[in-house]
Design brief:
The protein is mainly alpha-helical. It has 22 helices and five strands.
Length: about 525
Amino acid sequence: MIEQTSVRDRLARALPAPITGYRGSDPLPAFASGWVAVIALGTLALLLLRAGRYDWYGDELYFLAAGHRPAVSYVDQGPVLPLLAYAMDAVAPGSRTVFRLPAILCAVATVVLTAVCAREFGGDRRAQVFAAVGAAGAPFLIFQSAALSTYAVDSLLVGLLLWLLVRWVRTGRDGLLVGVALTAALAFQVKPLVPVLLAGVVAGVLAFGPRALLGRPALWAAGGVAALTALPAVLWQAAHGWPQLAMGAVIRGEQQAVAGGIVQLPVHVVTLTGPLGTALGLAGLWALVRTPELRDYRFLAAAAALLAAFVALAGGRPYYLAGLFPVVFGVGAVAVVHSRALLRLGAAALGAISLTLTVVLLFALPVSAVREPAHTQREMSDRLRFTGTTGWAEFTATTERAYARVPAGTPIVTENYWQAAGLEALTELPAVHSPNRGYATFGPPPETARTVLYILTGAPDPTWRARFPDATAVATADSPLGFPGLSAGVTIWRCDRPADGWAAAWRTLADPQFDAGW
């Protein structure tokens, strides 16, 4: 059993104002259920109100397509998101609000979990409210709930895993370690990034303790079972040439184009955490590092540092760090509440600003707000952030007009997986194929297909022209302010089957890069 000492007492030594009246043997402070419920329900209401205002995000439709093709793993994610997408669409076909409900519930649960983390560190009602407001006012909440995505679910699971570890440090109850292993197993089935976090946790425990954690039989037994659940996905990746590793290089290139590399990472983290979240995060990390008595929890700071280093050096997405927010915000809220009155007042002001910004940024701008075309990945990313994905109606209508000019049953091939997923979900057109990313593993057109409609973005390159020398353009979608790859820069070609057949052509056409025509 880990010696139970008050986190509040530990924090007191790092803060200007003393903290008294709490002992490790005391029960945790009362949960601020009323205020946290108000914040969580208010968040839920706003997120439900805006859920249907954004049009479909391309990845959502890809998850739905993957859900119709069950597998133990996919090129760039595990099976959980495809299964969720399939289930939500089965409940209410075509409803974006219902489809996004799991992401919304995860965002609301993150708000509650952050308050629970503050309580776990001995935070009173004020600290819990600060933590909940920090989570609700973080711009990441908007991204987490805007679409059904891997990071919407993964970030909550990582936060839950860390909370279970923190609770084990306080109580020593080995049943919590079983929960840690099961949560890690589920997170791996969402996105296989949790091993990086676990490596950071292990390194932090080895460096700072509590080393007793690594000697618990319950941890190794449950961890072994959890590892077995990952085996089918690992075997699938091996059988398909480890596409997840190739996707890492693609993501690094996209992140460089959109975010500008390592030096910009702190800026992007601040844009995810918001004013109050940034203050709580810095306060939490400072308390963990500064306070000797918090040594048993210092592994959290080490894990955060190692995960941030991985994101920076590997070119990962900044939101890979979001699972750290609940715990770091929680300890930061305790630190702020027990600091000087002026700091508490400043944190309250930041909380008001954060919530205001969240409400302002919550709803998509109308398409009429678009004034300039998007010619780069960064410009497209900015457009997605403020107006969502647009152009589906134009793209599907253009494709249907082109299809009316070819024999019924003609297969359709698209250059990128968003186009394929959109046509599959939003039209009654026949089977759609794409050599892009995960769609490539769904297979090429049948060898019996003598003719296809091939959708390209931008001008065809010489290699494509050589493979399809008799290609004829039959339709275009190229609005000056249209969405890249949907209503701008799109040409639909009628093509004959390549001389070496579709299976052979597929191996050379397969490409993990997302091409929207720039």
